[in-house]
């Protein structure tokens, strides 16, 4: 049990963060550099900006790192109830994602699945539900289509081999799941025929409601020639989120982010199982063990007012967006650990007698119960908190 202490009660836990940049070929050489005020273009593609305490890339703060600061006094940083619930570990991870090419088809485990997996399957023992809010138009595939919709899409493509596979599962209790299994476990020669047929059909100038999805499939196939993932995308729901749109992606939901810029908030985990469209290792057996093809993804638009607080059904995190306006406004979540990220323009965060000036792209950490912090300025603040209060 983690116990409160007089030292914790006297400790001030507040300060600017030094985020970690994650490089990847699917990232951008300009987006993160420009959002954070650094020279552009960057020398390498920058895919993610991490603001959190994950062991793989903890943010710096006040001469140390956020994970070390939390470990030194979890009650001061997280508050007693959150520290107790999560065993003293920081519960969430805030990121900016900047994919310019498709980010692998993937799924993440829930808490039980992460613990039950074979040794070596995951890099940590935590679940990884996610949420995101679009900063620019953000193209994604998230969740799977109903069987009738899959049949309609496949019929419009008129690829005989794929049509037969769709017909073969028509009487199944879980036809889309069975179709996914059959695609991912098909022999390489059959996968090659399917991919060539789908690429030819998607590139034939088809119109109608699925034209944008077909274009995205075609781009994915060009980026990863011969990858069955391009066919798997046809089973998934294609969307282009508008700036401000929010979506929650629970553990188990199949998804692939295509291009754009978003702020992502997730549980403090880096557990990923990939099914395709990536040079990284795949784990088809584990993906099929944990995938959930029944969960529907429904984007949410911001609520009226300066503060938008998006609901989640997990205790690890909650995302709030604070828009600029006249005068200072109080930040939500005083009784929770918080990370505040400023975008587009500078902001000033005032916490008691402490003033933090955040330039666009800068972030800070506010410990639980630190103060009733306020924000002012022309920037938009993306505020990450735990999903549970102290």
Automatic annotation (TrEMBL):
Coiled coil: none annotated. It comes from Flexivirga endophytica. This is mannose-6-phosphate isomerase. Keywords: Isomerase, Metal-binding, Zinc. Zn(2+) binds at residues 106, 108, 130, 255. The gene is manA. Its cofactor is Zn(2+). Binds 1 zinc ion per subunit. Belongs to the mannose-6-phosphate isomerase type 1 family. One of its GO terms (biological process) is carbohydrate metabolic process.
